[in-house]
Amino acid sequence: MKYDKIYYTASAEYLKARTGGFEPELGMILGTGLGGLAAQIEDPVEVLYRDIPNFLVSTAPDHAGKFIFGTLCGKKIMCMSGRFHFYEGYDYQDLVAPVRVMKLMGVKKLIVTNAAGAVNESYRPGDLMMIKDHIKMTGASPLCGPNDEAFGPRFFDMTDAYSKEMRSVARECAKRHEIKVHEGVYFFFTGPQFETPAEVRAARILGGDAVGMSTVTEVLTAAHCGIPVLGFSMISNMGAGILDQPLSGEEVTEIAQKAGPMFAEYLADVIRSL
Length: 274
Ligand code: HPA
Known about the structure:
Elements: H1 5-18, E1 26-30, E2 42-48, E3 66-72, E4 75-81, H2 97-105, E5 109-118, E6 128-136, H3 164-176, E7 181-188, H4 197-205, E8 210-212, H5 216-224, E9 229-238, H6 249-273
Parallel strand pairs: 1-4, 1-5, 5-9, 6-7, 7-8
Antiparallel strand pairs: 2-3, 3-4, 5-8, 6-9
Bound molecules: hypoxanthine.
Residues 115-117, 194-195, 211-213, 236-237, 239, 247, 252 line the site of hypoxanthine.
């Protein structure tokens, strides 16, 4: 059946065969800004998403996404280059695929990063925020539908989805690197439109520090199957309406890519320390 363990086992078996039985311990999903780390993966083996049975098909076929397997900072990792978002037109249920396949490959911990807009007015573009929790008030859960107990229980806990233990390690690394890393709440909107100024104000009143359109489906899937997560948002812009200027996708990408490399060394240290 689609979405159950047997369905995704076909994807994982294919990846095991392609990588010679590689056993990743750490999963990584790198968003805009912090994607450069993928280039540092040693002895990389790349597998295109489109070649993997029962996996998601990218909506931008000329920009093929891929898994990269290899070693980074002494850890055996499985990294996604290119992720899947609800706004691309996938059903929420389909968005469980990446993390379920990671689980079946043996991944024990997950790092996720994204670009996000600041809701907290003390943040600035170029800042880094460690995600301590999220709010998702729009859209269905990727865990809707028949539950496969082989992955996790029907009703599952989100109290420590953004692992306290991993956050504590990341906090120590930030001290060592003498860099400021905020800790805040990621407020999910489906996109693809940026938020309205009123939505950004609402997110602030409700306790959000940053807004974004990714990450949350992956974290929910990880929490369901018991993978602890460490998440970071690269603040690429002030949320809509905070400044008297419109937002553009190009600007968001540009700022996130400019600021990203500053944090690559920090993130490398975090990976080493996990
Ligand atoms: N809103 C939603 N997603 C984003 C933003 C934003 O302001 N910036 C980067 N990703």
